Amino acid sequence: MVLAALLLVTGCFAAPQQDAGNGRLNVVMMQPPRSALSPFSDDAFKLSRLGIAETLVNLDADGNPLPGLAASWRQAGPVEWEFSLRPGVRFHDGTSLNAAVAVNALQRAAQAQPKPRILDGVELTVTEAGPDRVVVRTATPDPMLPQRLSSPQLSVLATAAYQPDGTVNPAGAGTGPFVLTELRGSQGASLERFNEHWNGPARAPGLDVSFVPDGAARAAALRTGTGDIVEAIPASQAGLLEPGTFTEVPMPRTNTLYLNSRPGGVFGDPGLRAAVREAIDVAPIVSGPYENRADIAQGLLGPAIPWSAQRPPRSGATPPAAARGERITLATFSDRAELPEVAAILEQQLERAGFQVELVVREYSQIETDALDGRFDAFILSRATVLDSGDPAAYLRSDFACDGGFNLSGLCDPAVDAALREAEGEGDMRTRRAKILEAEREILRTDAAIPMLHERVVQGNAPGVQGAAFDPRERMLVQRDTRKGAE
Question: What is the pTM of this model?
Answer without folding.
Answer: 0.75
